[in-house]
């Protein structure tokens, strides 16, 4: 879990959700773009984790990518959450590639690893949570334009 050091407020926040077959990325961000939480969880615990996050944060909507399993997951979120949230689909094309770049901005390589070209560096953990962050940002960009 990667909770943010920012204190929680009553400001509504957005849940970014990047579902996958084995793992899902989750992120919670305020409309002010303050990242409050991000984590990669196993798919089986995604719904329970979302329920827990709703107890911790005033989540107003879920933002999810529009590709692969979006329709199935939108249905699951509607039927399996105790109090269903509004689900908004956003374009997720190229989000995995963008997440790789964002990972290195969030976690710059240290020591000798800085000398390895970015394209050759191996990311040491799943980045589905960073995809979830990018999905929220894409949603917020859409609101502004």
What does this protein look like?
This protein is of the alpha/beta class and 145 residues long. It has helices spanning 46-56, 70-80, 95-106, 128-144; strands at 2-3, 13-18, 23-30, 35-42, 59-65, 86-90. A 6-stranded mixed beta sheet has the order 1-4-3-2-5-6. Strand 2 (13-18) and strand 3 form a beta hairpin. Helix 3 packs across helix 4.
Short description:
The chain contains four helices and six strands; from the N terminus they run E-E-E-E-H-E-H-E-H-H.
The ordered H/E elements are EEEEHEHEHH
Which strand-content bin applies to the residues? 15-25%
Main pleated sheet: 6 strands, mixed
Strand order of the largest sheet: 1-4-3-2-5-6
Radius of gyration: 15 Å
Write down the overall mean pLDDT: 90
Low-confidence stretches: 1-7
Number of helices: 4
Identify the overall geometry. Answer: globular
Give the fraction of residues assigned to helices: 25-40%
Structural class: alpha/beta
**CA-to-CA gap between the ends?**
32 Å
Strand tally is: 6
What brief labels describe this structure?
145 residues, alpha/beta, 4 helices, 25% strand, disordered N terminus
Describe the SSE topology.
Blueprint: E1 2-3, E2 13-18, E3 23-30, E4 35-42, H1 46-56, E5 59-65, H2 70-80, E6 86-90, H3 95-106, H4 128-144
Parallel strand pairs: 2-5, 5-6
Antiparallel strand pairs: 1-4, 2-3, 3-4
Helix pairs in contact: 3-4
């Amino acid at each position: 879990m990667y909770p943010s050091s920012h204190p929680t407020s009553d400001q509504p926040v957005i849940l970014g959700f990047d579902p996958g077959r084995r793992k899902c990325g989750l992120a919670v961000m305020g409309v002010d773009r303050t990242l409050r939480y991000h984590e990669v969880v196993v798919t089986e615990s995604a719904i329970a984790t979302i329920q827990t996050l709703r107890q911790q944060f005033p989540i107003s909507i879920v933002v999810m990518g529009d590709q692969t399993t979006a329709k199935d997951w939108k249905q699951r979120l509607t039927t399996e959450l105790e109090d269903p949230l509004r689900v908004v689909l956003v374009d997720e094309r190229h989000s995995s590639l963008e997440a790789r770049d964002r990972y290195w901005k969030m976690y710059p390589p240290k020591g000798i690893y800085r000398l390895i070209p970015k394209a050759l560096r191996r990311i040491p953990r799943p980045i589905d949570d960073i995809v979830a962050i990018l999905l929220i940002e894409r949603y917020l960009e859409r609101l502004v334009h």
